Amino acid sequence: MHYLMEWTEKTRLEKISLTVFSTNKPAIRLYAKFGFQIEGIRRKQFKVKGKYVDEVIMGKFLR
Fold first, then answer.
1. How many CA atoms lie within 13 A of 20 on its CB side?
2. Tens digit of each residue's pLDDT (9 = 90 or more) over 9-60
3. Nearest CA among 53, 52, 15, 54 for reference residue 37
4. Partners of 17 in the beta sheet?
């Protein structure tokens, strides 16, 4: 994450986005620590081991 954030500072990107399983709470907390915000949730987007999992969409504006 540190490398990604340093790299984005050198680019002309205005926003970066990512998605993560809703069950991956440590990753969601990490991304939030780096300034990402939840922008949406795609309900029951994946089926993992027979159970539906939501997809969390997160983004961060750089400029």
1. 19
2. 888 899 999 999 999 999 999 999 999 999 999 999 999 999 999 999 999 9
3. 15
4. 59
Q: What string of DSSP letters covers 4-44?
A: HHHHHHTS---EEEEEEETT-HHHHHHHHHTT-EEEEEEEE
- Reduce the DSSP state of residue 62 to 3 states and report it: coil
Residue 8: per-residue pLDDT: 85
35 alpha carbon, distance to own chain's centre: 10
The single-letter DSSP state of residue 54 is E
Mind listing the domains of the chain with CATH numbers?
2-61 (3.40.630.30)
Supply the DSSP symbol for 55: E
pLDDT at residue 31, as a whole number? 96
